[in-house]
Structures are given as structure tokens and as C-alpha cells.
Amino acid sequence: MVGKTKNETRENVRDGKGKIEFCHIVSEEELNGHGTMYAKLTFEPHSSIGRHQHVGCTEPYYILSGKAIFEDNDGTRTKVCAGDVCTIKCGESHAIENPYDEPMEMMALIYNE
């Protein structure tokens, strides 16, 4: 089977700021109940996803290009760049922001507990 990606642009994701483009690699239905998202996200400069909690799921990020600030469950803020992996475990909270002047791209997978 060969499929097509579905692109959408969202603003102020999880009370964050700016615009983020979601390029959905597979749909939630295609994940067959094992997860809710597998997508490439492109953060415009000065955009973010606000702090939120993962209930019943885990989410790893893989930074493809650019850089960002990742806020971990304990509030620690860490600069991340291409090749870094950020993992949000079930029950943890996090946020991520691109405060820089260039876009940042990452892969995100949300899979169920």
C-alpha cells in the first residue's frame, strides 16, 4: 500500500504560540488503536506547544533540524538540536518551544500504554 501524508497547520497548540505544521505520516485509524499520532512537525520561528500532560500514552520526539527548548516533566529546560531524542513517559508533562529565528523540524510518535 502506498499512501499520502495529510498536512495541517495549527495555531497556539496546547496554549502555545505561533504556527506549527503537522505532516501526518499515518492516520490515527492506521495506528489500529496502538497510538494517536505519527507525524513530522515543523515549528515556525518563535512558536511552541504549551505544557500538557500525557495520560495513557508515551511520546518520543526526534529532532530532525533546527533547535528548540524542551521543558521536561520536572520543569527542566534543555536546548535540543538535530539528532536529540526527548521522551515523555505516561503521566508526565512537557512543553517545547522554538524561540529561534529559523524553523525547527521533528518527528513525533504518540503510542498508547
How would you describe this structure to a colleague?
There is one protein chain. The protein is mainly beta and 113 residues long. It has no helices and 10 strands. The protein has strands at residues 6-11, 19-26, 35-43, 47-53, 57-65, 67-71, 77-81, 85-88, 93-98, 104-112. A 6-stranded antiparallel β-sheet has the order 1-2-3-10-5-8, with no helix packed on it. A 4-stranded antiparallel β-sheet has the order 4-9-6-7, with no helix packed on it. The model has no long low-confidence stretch (mean pLDDT 97).
In CATH, what is the class?
Mainly Beta
Count of distinct strands: 10
Query: What gap, in angstroms, lies between the N and C termini?
Result: 27 Å
pLDDT < 50 stretches: none
- Write down the secondary-structure element order: EEEEEEEEEE
Helicity level: under 10%
Strand content: over 45%
What is the overall shape?
globular
Mean pLDDT: 97
CATH superfamily: Jelly Rolls
Which CATH architecture? Sandwich
Major pleated sheet: 6 strands, antiparallel
- Class by helix and strand content? mainly beta
